[in-house]
Every structure is written in C-alpha cells, then in structure tokens.
Specification:
This protein is mainly β. The strands form 4 sheets. Strands 1-2-3-4-5-6-7-10 form an 8-stranded antiparallel β-barrel. The longest helix has 10 residues.
Length: 361
Amino acid sequence: AIIILLFLSAAPLVGQDIDPRGIYFNRFVGSFSGTEWFQLTPVSGLTYQLRDIYGGGFTGQIDAEGNITIGAFPPGMFTTPDNFVIFPILGGSPFTFTCNRVPTTTVDFPLILASAHPANALLAGQWSNTLRSINPETGSMGGPSTEVITITTGANTIRITDPGGLFFQGVFEDGLKAGFRVVNNPFFPPPSGIFASFPGSSTNIGQDLLGELNMISINEFRASFLLQSRTQLGNQSQTLFEFEAERISPLEQGDANGDGVVDAEDEFIVEILQGTTFEDTNYNLAADINSDGIINFIDLAFYCLQGDVNLDGVVNLSDVALFAAFVSNSFFVCEADINVDGAVNLQDIAPFVEILTGSGG
C-alpha cells in the first residue's frame, strides 16, 4: 500500500507528449511477485494494449501526458517518457506493475510484423561482433566481449550464429530492419494473433526471444536481443544482449552487386534503382551509398566525375558546349549536376567554372 501511495502522488508529465509504444521490463508486486517482458501496442486513437508477450493483460487509454486509465483499476501514469506504473487487481488481489522501457530499445521496437521484406543476400558472411550483456532493469552494462559470428540469409530471413552454434533468426520488415520473435511457453496457451511468433523467426537457445536488428550500412549493424526463460509466471528471468557488428571482409563502397569491383555495372544498378526507398522490395543497401534509406542522385554522384559531361575522364574545355546544352535544356546527367542537388540548372554553372579553372581549391 505504501508503494502504491508513493506512485499515486507522483505528478504526471504535464506538457510532454508521450509515445507509449514499445517493449518494457515489468517488475510486478502483489499476491505473488516476479518480472516479465511487457509490451504496449496501439489499437486505435488513445487505446493501447498493455500486455505481457503472451497476450495476458489489459486494454486501456493513454493520453498524451501519460495518464493511464484501465477500466475500474486505480489510475496509472508515466513518470518519465520511458517509465510507467499501473495498479491492476488480479484475482481480487491488488498488484503494482512498474515498467521501464528496455534499455537499447525505442518506440519502434518490432512487436508486430505486418509483412516480410526480401533479405539482402549480400549480408551473408562472417562478422566481428562486440557483445554486451545489459541489465534489463537498470541498464548497467557488463564488460564487452568480441566474437566472430556468421550471417546467413533466406528469402526474407537473417540468421546470426555464434561460434558455439547458437543462433537467432529474424525476419526483415523493411530493407534496413529485421524483427525477432519466438514465443513458445509450455505454461501458457500458445500465443495467437499479434502475440504469436513471427513466421520465419526461430532460435535454438531454448528461451523465448524478442529482438531487433538495424542495418547502419552494408558493412555494419546493431541489434538487441531479449530472452525470457520458459518457466512459470513469477519465476521467469530476463536477459538482454546488445550486438555491434562489422563485416570482417567489408564490401567496397559502391560495389552494388557485391562482385568485388566497382565498375559500370554497379553504376547501372544505382541508376535503375533511382527513387527506391528502404520500404520497397527491390531496395539494395549496397546501392544506397550514404545509407540514408533512399537511392537517389546523391548515391549516383559517387560514380560520376562532376563536370566530365563528355565522359572522356577529364574536365576541360571540351566539356563546355555539352554542359551548356544540358543546363539550357535542364537535362539531367549526374556529371552535369555539379552541386549534387538532383537537378541540372543555372545553379550548376558557378561550381562547373570552379572545377574547370581549378579555382575550387
């Protein structure tokens, strides 16, 4: 009762917009106590599902200031943008749920897989991984260790295998992000609907798995993996790992087809993928030279010698007439887009003159 009164006296976050989506570490106290992963998923408007990873829980309203209303239960609230408390009554007994957003995760942690996205086969190979164990409640980190991991890909899956043969397999939800979800506990009914495992996700760890992997570039990724023991409610334990990995034999920047050389074939790939974003099924991270989620004129400029509009390998007076024609007709070729803004126009003349005369430094 003292704990409940202390939380009830806390002030809500007036004036701050709360986005409650995501995955939390829940420490519950009542007629029995324990810990669990707890997820908040939107239903519609201000309505959210506040539930453990198997589906047991509540549906309630959460306003922009973090006030939580769940039926006739005492009100709950977010005490910070990443922490909340609720006071359910279960089996006639009052409980206190104190929930902290899992360290390393954000509101975009994958809890629902709308559809699978094709995997990029170029990710396969060996990677050097810095592994950190993190306390899921406090965020304190254990000392890092380094290991060589192996990545394999399927049609839309990515599998990470450690030197001992343990693996996590997830499913790409877009060209930059994969989600991991394997929920199978003998003490609970099989999850269904949004609480089920992601089709294609798997692990041989022997625990329930939640996770996300974010590609930083074709040669780098970061990932968080949440494990929970398959034991009875109140006796479950949680483990959190963070991966930070780099490819051991990195692809050369601009090698869009992964054949080991950067040439006209790679430029052609980038040309035909112009306008493709990380949400499109044909997105190729290796062709997204600056890894910003869209393949466009900035990436194409990597292959171009700005000003060399006649493609003879040098910028000189023989380029002037053709450059002038391109500007006059607003005809786009990346060699004439001197300022790399996606258009060929009068704004390109001054930087072209600087290149031509060598006055650009």
